[in-house]
Amino acid sequence: MRMNANEFGKRLGIGVRVAGRIAHQRAQEREAQAARSARTAQSGSQPQGVIEPPMRGFVPSSSDIREAREKTHKITRAAGRGVGGFLRPFTRVGGILWLEVTGFFFGLFALYFAQDLWRTHTSYASGPQHQRFLIAAAMTVVFGYLSVSAFWRARKR
After folding, report:
1. Which of 11, 112, 113, 157 is the most exposed place for a label (fewest CB within 10 A)?
2. Closest by alpha carbon to 81, among 21, 9, 153?
3. pLDDT range class, residue 82, cuts 50, 70, 90
4. Does the pTM exceed 0.70?
């Protein structure tokens, strides 16, 4: 699923507005609590038997927590999609670059074993280094194949 820039901007704007409203509401609740505590400090202590109800912002109900969690989840998911959409072209280029780098290193190993193959080529049929020649030949073929296939896959992308 792709998310275009306008949709990402809309979702980001909605998230910022919701976060701003929540911050504003909590600031107002703190001011109200500070004013209440200032009034009680000026008038003395509260009369006994009077219990002040807890503030809604500081003791949220389970439905408030659930709503806030759902909003946060939606905002996070939208931001994740937006970042994923932004990074998608870079992941493609990064994958191509990765294939080319691995192909290069496999090519270096193939060249190393090809040198050893050339050094022992006089022992190809039978000789003191016949086993080393066979191992070098096999490794040259394997790493050569891996190098070529990595570059081939990079080109197909």
Report:
1. 157
2. 9
3. confident
4. no
Distances (CA, A) of 58 to 42, 90, 91, 117, 118: 24, 44, 44, 76, 79
In the prediction, which pLDDT does 2 show?
Answer: 67
Backbone torsion region of residue 150, taken as left when φ is above 0, otherwise alpha when ψ lies between -120 and 50, otherwise beta = alpha
Per DSSP, 124 falls in state: S
Contacts of 1 (CB under 8 A, 6+ apart): 81
Structural contact between residues 117 and 136, judged by C-beta atoms closer than 8 angstroms: yes
What are the domain boundaries of the chain?
Answer: 5-156
C-beta separation of 150 from 110 below 8 A? no
Answer whether 75's CB lies under 8 Å from 15's CB: yes
CA distances from 128 to 114, 132, 135 (A): 18, 9, 14
Distance CA 130, CA 66 (A): 73
- The CA distance from 110 to 69, in Å, is 55
